[in-house]
Amino acid sequence: MMREQSREQVGQQATGGAGGVPASSRLSRSLARTFASFSNRNYRLFWFGQLLSVTGTWVQRVAQAWLVLNLTDSSFALGMVTTLQFLPMTLFSLFGGVFADRLPKRQVLLVTQFVMGIQALILGLLISWDVVEIWHIYILAAVLGLATAFDNPTRQAFVVEMVGPKNVPNAVALNSSLFNTARIVGPSIGGAMIAAFGIAVPFYANAVSFVAVIVGLLMMRPEEFYDVPPPVRGPVLARLREGIAYSVRTPAVALVLILMAFLGTFGYQFTVILPLIARYVLDTGALGFGGLLTAMGIGSLVAALGVAYVSSPTERLLLMGAGSFTVLLGLLALSTSAPLTVGILVLLGAGSIVFTATANSRLQILAPGELRGRVMSLYIFLFMGTAPVGSLSLGYLAETLSVRIAVGIMALLCAVGFVLGWLYRARHPEHGPRTATRRPVQESSVSD
Predict the structure, then answer these.
(1) What does the pLDDT read at residue 396?
(2) Could you give the CA distance from residue 447 to residue 279 in angstroms, rounded to a whole number?
(3) HSE value, Cβ hemisphere, 13 Å, CA-based, for 390
(4) How far apart are CA 96 and CA 224, in angstroms?
(5) Which helix (H) or strand (E) covers residue 71, if one does?
(6) Which of 260, 387, 267 is nearest to 326 (CA)?
(7) pLDDT at 24 (0 to 100)
(8) Positive or negative, the Cα torsion across 179, 181, 182, 188?
(9) Judging by beta carbons within 10 Å of its beta carbon (0-12, 13-18, 19+), is residue 352 exposed, middle or buried?
(10) Under 8 Å between Cβ of 379 and 256
(11) Residues 400, 416: contact at Cβ < 8 Å?
């Protein structure tokens, strides 16, 4: 009898249990579900090109932050670079959304990616020629910000055209996974490049990485795009007001934007927070700074793959992500231990992706095609365009008080936004289904 039981147990293990489904088959189905958008050729080209480019961007971010601190030894100067990089997004990202609804998105991305590559090359040359000064970094940061103001809304709205509405949550989560894979790999590469070859090499590497994106865009098949809306004509300001009005009067969209207004402005300032913690709280070097970014990237990557598998951008998940992010940011402000800080950053990375991936997916699904670029530009504006307010505030508070107190104040402001979002949700029970669904757009949305 024991032998028969053993055979039965072996059979169940081989088939994955009493259900008779082989474990290998379940694994294959799970992988197919997690990476569903990879079945689309255009999206594969986009994803792998972005993986190389975003990795290069993280390599440059580490180098740029360290370059600024080496030139100035000033947390305020570091905040100023971030401010100038994001100020064009504050001024122009909403207009970038209008152009995303008006122009072919692939062509817009070809131009913006080319400009970003040239910006990295120029900065690398200035360093190699030993003539770089802080004002050079200020100007080139503003150029990068201007290109990004048109690139980001277009790139966000381009996702649904590549994969179709059904796979948007999966594709957005996979985009987050590539971003965080780059965040894991990029900082370590950047720190190693600085230590081994000097600070100019990371900028050259980033310039080369943009070639992958441009080639991928050129290889796409436009005839295979999904849900391409007709170009939106008419006065730019009128079209901009139309997108804002839709977002304000649609409670499901407004809830996302309320949360992002606070968390995006005060919480997602990691290009300022992490180098300050590395240098002034933990007293580590460039490799240690890269390690902090890598720790956060690990948590973010795991969360991104989980969100891709679930592919269900519910309102509850949105609030869970926002709440956990806020609490963990507060804990980060209290930590003075390197191991504890690394652990908090892993969890903080996970919470940050649950929130942003869910927010992004909900907006893309809720927004009609004719308004998607403008709705996503509001998301980009609140997520990145408000960075001048957050980064300057953080830099000023860190320099006048302390880094830990500054991060703590940012966490409190995020908590204010979470409470306001919760109250708004309670007062608008008619805001729509808990799982995002498409809504029709009136004909006037595309009229001249």
Answers:
(1) 86
(2) 54
(3) 32
(4) 25
(5) helix 41-72
(6) 267
(7) 66
(8) positive
(9) buried
(10) yes
(11) no
The DSSP symbol for 48 reads H
Helix axes 105-128, 75-102, angle to 10 degrees: 160
Question: CA separation (Å) from 327 to 2, 21, 270?
Answer: 53, 41, 16
**Is residue 262 within 8 Å of 414, Cβ to Cβ?**
yes
Say what angle helices 387-400 and 403-427 make with each other, to 10 degrees. Answer: 140
pLDDT for 20 equals 57
Q: Are 349 and 305 in contact (CB under 8 A)?
A: no
**8 A C-beta contact, residue 64 and residue 81:** yes
Say how far residue 301 (Cα) sits from the centre of its chain: 12
Q: What is the pLDDT of residue 308?
A: 82
Domain ranges of the chain: 37-218+232-437
Task: Assess if CATH 1.20.1250.20 describes domain 37-218+232-437.
Answer: yes
User: What tokens does 3 get?
Assistant: 């032998």
Look up residue 401 and give its two tokens.
């008080």
Name residues whose C-beta falls within 8 Å of residue 6's C-beta, 6 or more positions apart in sequence. none
SS3 133: coil
Chain mean position to CA 234: 31
Q: How many residues does the chain have?
A: 448
CA distance 389 to 132: 27
Q: Which residue ranges in the chain fall short of pLDDT 70? A: 1-24, 227-228, 271, 286, 429-448
Residue among 376, 330, 327 at smallest CA distance from 356 = 376
- Report which of 217, 296, 341 is spatially closest to residue 58, judged by C-alpha positions: 296
Q: What is the DSSP letter of 35?
A: T
pLDDT at residue 251, rounded to an integer: 92
Give the separation between CA 196 and CA 188, rounded to whole angstroms. 12
pLDDT of residue 328: 95
Q: Is 378 exposed, middle or buried (0-12, 13-18, 19+ CB in 10 A)?
A: buried
Count the Cβ atoms, other than its own, within 10 Å of residue 444: 7
**Burial classification of residue 53, based on how many CB atoms lie within 10 Å of its CB (0-12 exposed, 13-18 middle, 19 or more buried):** buried
Residue of 364, 97, 370, 166 whose CA lies nearest to 253 = 364
